[in-house]
Design a protein that fits this description.
Order of helices and strands: EHEHEEHHHHHHHHHHHH
Bound molecules: glutathione
Radius of gyration: 18 Å
Helix content: 55-70%
Distance between the termini: 46 Å
Strand content: 5-15%
């Protein structure tokens, strides 16, 4: 089996897929796209992924897009040496419900502080015409970009994103308590944990770890995922925003407030 992953080091959606490939010990060729330069919007890439976003997986010529779909696909075609899908149908259903929740809540919310804090200087440096043309060329995120504008999302949107993330931590806490932990569904990590991981790691990278300090089950979950053997090869150097954008290291805590 041959795998090519089109992705970006700091992309949260890409990190889900790298984690699963690493955990399953599936060798893959990594094609790194520069998202701020617009590599994801070039015709060759759009022919693979018409959404104009990463990740995209090519498996022996079969193209699979969307990180949640890709990780489910990988779990189906390579159930060994480890599977992240419970065998019991009601647990599988719970896992999928959580994955939908994660895509709708934290995975979406985390884009607001990410763009405002990390990427804005790049857009602020564009002329209005350049920015509008860049936004216009995005099949999936045009309206998101226009809502952000060159000045960034207003504080109201930042506050809303932080509230949605806080409700996510509380939901995680409740799920871990219900399952007995340490993972969302109990004793073993599932695709839901992997889908959630990048949003939590992103918020920690942005200096917001204190936001779940009052929830020790969530803190233990965060320690457990970081201790997983697949974590370090997934978060290779350059995978964190603070590694690529040094301006975040000093100001992240104040700026995210
Ligand atoms: N639902 C998609 C979302 C993919 C997505 O939003 N990817 C981001 C990086 S995490 C991207 O490529 N952004 C490029 C852009 O906004 O132009 C998935 O999970 O694969």
């Amino acid at each position: 089996m041959s795998f090519t992953l089109y992705n970006a080091p700091q992309s949260t959606c890409s990190q889900r897929v790298r984690f699963v490939l690493n955990a399953k010990k599936l060798p893959f060729t990594e094609v790194k796209l520069d998202l701020l330069a617009g590599d994801q919007l070039k015709p060759d890439y759009l022919a693979l992924n018409p959404n104009g976003v990463v990740p995209t997986l090519d498996h022996d010529g079969a193209v699979v897009i969307d990180s949640s779909v890709i990780i489910e696909y990988l779990d189906e075609i390579a159930p060994n040496p480890v599977t992240f899908t419970p065998s019991e149908p009601t647990l599988r259903a719970r896992m999928r419900s959580l994955m939908r929740f994660i895509d709708e809540m934290p995975a979406a919310a985390v884009r607001v502080p990410t763009f405002n804090l990390a990427f804005l200087p790049r857009f602020a440096a564009m002329s209005e015409e350049e920015f509008l043309a860049f936004a216009e060329s995005k099949p999936l995120r045009k309206e998101f970009m226009l809502a952000m504008g060159r000045k960034g999302f207003p504080q109201k949107d930042m506050d809303g994103a932080m509230q949605r993330l806080r409700r996510t931590y509380e939901r995680m806490d409740a799920e871990i308590e219900k399952s007995g932990g340490p993972w969302l569904l109990g004793a073993d990590p599932s695709l839901a944990d992997i889908a959630l991981m990048p949003a939590i790691v992103r918020m920690a990278d942005l200096g917001r770890e204190a936001d779940w300090q009052d929830l020790p089950r969530v803190q233990r979950w965060y320690e457990a995922i970081r201790a997983h053997a697949a974590f370090a090869p997934t978060y290779y150097p350059g995978s964190l925003l603070t590694e690529r954008f040094p301006h975040l290291r000093k100001t992240e805590k104040q700026a995210a407030r």
